[in-house]
Amino acid sequence: MAEAVREELSALGAIFCGPNEWEVLSLSDGTVFRILTRAEGFMDADIPLQLVFHLPVNYPSCLPGIVVNSEHLTRAECEIVKEKLLEQAETLLSEPMVHELVLWIQQNLRHILKRPETGGGSEKCTSAASTTVDDGLWMTLLHLDHMRAKTKYVKTVEKWASDLRLTGRLMFMGKIILILLQGDRNNIKEYLILQKTCKVDVDSSGKKCKEKMISVLFETKVQTEHKRFLAFEVKEYSSLDELQKEFETAGLKKLFSEFVLRLVK
User: Fold this and answer.
1) Please, are residues 64 and 97 in contact by the beta-carbon 8 Å criterion?
2) How far apart are CA 101 and CA 49, in angstroms?
3) Taking CA atoms, which of 36, 161, 210, 259 is between 20 and 30 Å from 200?
4) pTM for the complete prediction?
């Protein structure tokens, strides 16, 4: 990690020192962190914003990746906010910019929301873990330890998959819960950020909580022998043989043997 980035992260941690305002999510392939802030929206009402930044290894010479989420904004509005932040980031290249971007959105959110625009032109950086290369169709398999609020959790996963144009399966077999996703690699990475940073379940006391028991079993570029899923479906399997058949039909027999079978041993 470059010294300038290390100093910026230290400063951000000191600035956003309130409860849950700051969290480092990953230090691999650059740095990914989350900032919770508020910005003035319509009718002077404060809107909570969750901003996830990905600083690539050559940042600040290149743009950071940004994901914007808010329970008070639609998905389209979040995309507009992200695009405007990236436009502003282009004016700050070569200098540490995250704090400047947070201050800018705090001051300008109201004006952005009053001038809604259709998306476009920002596909080069669509997520907090994005790259500037079109990686084609990718696939990943996730393992969840449990779901307490299953109905709400499933609806949330379906919505994220739909919003990010991902296809695949949410699979239940006994206590095993798997999520198989296909789509643009950047969108899959954005899904993972949502999965790790949003409150999708409840804890043992019934309070909303983030998903802390998720693991990525594998990630690979979709090959010619792999089935292309046309939609995202939720499926329950009554036996391991039935689940295995699903993987074999998708051309994933080897991956099933290597990664799924060990979950039942």
Assistant:
1) yes
2) 13
3) 259
4) 0.54
- Whether residue 50 contacts residue 89, with contact meaning beta carbons closer than 8 Å, is answered with no
Identify whether the C-beta of residue 166 lies closer than 8 Å to the C-beta of residue 189: no
pLDDT (tens digit, 9 = 90+) per residue, 195-206? 877 788 888 888
For residue 121, name the pLDDT band (cuts at 50, 70, 90). very low
- Greatest Cα pair distance, the chain, in angstroms, is 57
Q: CA angle, corner 115, sides to 64 and 74, nearest 5? A: 65
Return the axis-axis angle of helices 98-113 and 3-15, rounded to nearest 10°: 60
What is the C-alpha separation between 49 and 148, in angstroms, rounded? 26
For 212, phi and psi rounded to 5 degrees?
-105, -10
CB 38 within 8 A of CB 46: yes
Q: Are strands 232-236 and 167-173 parallel, antiparallel or unpaired?
A: parallel
Q: Which amino acid would we find at residue 58?
A: N
Tracing tokens 């929301």 back to the chain, one arrives at 113
Provide the pairing of β-strand 176-184 with 167-173. antiparallel
Residue type, 117: E
Q: Write phi, then psi, for 225 (nearest 5 degrees).
A: -80, -5
